[in-house]
């Protein structure tokens, strides 16, 4: 095994949007980083993001503000997100978008030459900056260009095609506590371990590398691989998160899984029909065979088709028990489709053989995003010193339900914030004594059972009896993925209420006593701590 | 629709083709076929086919391979395109082979570094070239254009069309010619002087990028010093 001592460098696991943002931020602060990923950034799930990124740029004369962005984000998350963190993120959003523009992102422009903004779900103001319906790809390309410059300058080292295996730790680092004097008290109450690196494996050669640095930022994406048929990338396996859970890293809000209202089956998984379609005027209707029922517009006159995703998905779910539901974009001006929804039109033509200018598309909710993930403070540090998280794997900004347009924002801003917080470790000399625990090999095929069990019971609508039976079924499985899956179900069972994306038919009301986050971690080897 | 599939298994010596039948819908993609085979293989305890995939919707470029001899993305190649019912899957041939259908395409990313595809100074966003910059930024870095290029060989100096396609957005957003000085030298040496103008790259792009147009725009800016 090769041992690479990345002196004073910060190790970033995951080279999607959050990881790139972290690397760029560190370089600006004069700190070098190593960017580890199973696949090159160009293949990351972030390139699949379509609709846009939220920022209260207020260029439409609607009186938008960062405060309103905060209020709508916090309310859509049903009041359990980290309030301080959400406030900071929404306040920083306009600068984030301007910085992306300075990196060359090809945002659409309005008639005044400003970055154009579109309506998005759960928001009363035009606040979502976009690049047609390929916003993620365009933002990623610009940040990859910037990281390429940093690579050439020797400030970032990209190790693509390397899988994360496990974390490295060292204990009793007194120098560390003194260097973090501003929050030394907080740190002393935390997990006693200090994260100083990662074990990674080259996917092509099988070679294992012990990579020792000054801190680690996890930016490993969402937990899609633990479920069947999501809209996410197949590269987001959830394996890294399951390994962190095994190591005793605390997770939060695992029961909150976002079902995007408008997805279709394609290629053995779900394909997204971006919320941008409704943002630009697309309409949902149920087809009774005789009439069209525009059920969202009838029930929610103010926001109509652009209610938050949890609400819209539930309405579609229940409506589909009676009638098929369609998304109709055929009334949109051709110019809107060509200039703002070109990618979406192309995908529908290629994969559904549908011309969205002429015919509606039948849609159903599908898993799209995980609000839950690694538990951190507003500074993105976990309970383990030197271990940070950012992007979709980090549960911080979205509470019980994420607003469309806030994931790209959370990834860019979160990566930046995690990097700035990790700077306090950058001058701590690397320990040569890092240790690790070899992860157990999961029984072949067990992940298939885990996916089926979780997907069956953690749907748009849940009930306690089915989830208890699923928990029982998981008892026969022994992998770390199965242990992690138990945490999802325990969080969902413990929350005897309906809040955001977590809707229980046996507890259909939101209850004040549950207005708090769910916390899950492994204690004493295998059992899962009581949520909350 | 039933198809006979041959997958080149190169990691075992001697190389051989794994042959199996797949019955699916005409609209099924080759990527769906491979996923199905691997799920079945897993449940049987058989060895799976090694290949790379991500988005399954033509956005990430991971699943590039030779399909009946033509470099394509498996996720956007459909059974109905192979009416004769025969599909032969092989790894790309211009890149170092790793396993089964996987090749190491690091050469694509190295090529972009070699011709300085990054902003060396402030970015000037001009609405007039927004559409072309958008097209340039849509490149999947999949390597299909390099696979068909008669002049490209992994490990050698010539970068192939990825340099021109991706270089365009840098050239078009430069705030003054001075910041393109190094890029122009690198572009001439590693791209322009090696291109034989076969334009085989133009029609093969899975992202539908107007490759020829971006090449001529990049040449105009980076060879002839014109504003684009």
Form type of chain A: globular
Using only CA atoms, what is the Rg of chain B? 20 Å
Mean pLDDT of chain A: 93
> Which two chains touch over the largest interface?
A-B, 48 and 53 residues
Number of domains of chain A: 3
CATH homolog superfamily of the largest domain in chain B? Alpha-helical ferredoxin
Offer a quick outline of the entry:
The complex is a heterodimer of chains A (532) and B (228). Chain A is an alpha/beta fold. Chain A has 16 helices and 25 strands.
Q: Can you describe what's shown?
A:
The complex is a heterodimer of chains A (532) and B (228). Chain A has 532 residues and is an alpha/beta fold. Chain A folds into three domains: 2-223 and 372-425, FAD/NAD(P)-binding domain, CATH 3.50.50.60; 224-258 and 440-528, Fumarate reductase/succinate dehydrogenase flavoprotein-like, C-terminal domain (Methane Monooxygenase Hydroxylase, Chain G, domain 1, Up-down Bundle), CATH 1.20.58.100; 274-362, Alpha-Beta Complex (Flavocytochrome C3, Chain A, domain 1). Chain A contains 16 helices and 25 strands. In chain A, the strands form seven sheets. In chain A, strands 7-3-2-11-21 form a five-stranded parallel β-sheet. A four-stranded mixed β-sheet of chain A has the order 1-10-9-8, covered by helices on one side. Chain A starts with a strand and ends with a strand. Residues 173-190 of chain A have low confidence and may be disordered. Chain B folds into two domains: 2-103, Beta-grasp domain (Ubiquitin-like (UB roll)); 106-222, Fumarate Reductase Iron-sulfur Protein, Chain B, domain 2, CATH 1.10.1060.10. Chain B contains eight helices and seven strands; from the N terminus they run E-E-H-E-E-E-E-E-H-H-H-H-H-H-H. Chain B has helices at residues 30-44, 106-114, 130-136, 144-147, 161-172, 181-190, 200-204, 211-222; strands at residues 2-9, 16-23, 64-67, 70-73, 86-90, 97-99, 102-103. In chain B, helix 3 runs antiparallel to helix 5 and helix 5 crosses helix 8. Chain B starts with a strand and ends in a 6-residue tail after the last helix. Classes of the chains: A alpha/beta (532), B alpha+beta (228). At the A-B interface, helix 4 and helix 12 of A face helix 1, helix 2 and helix 3 of B.
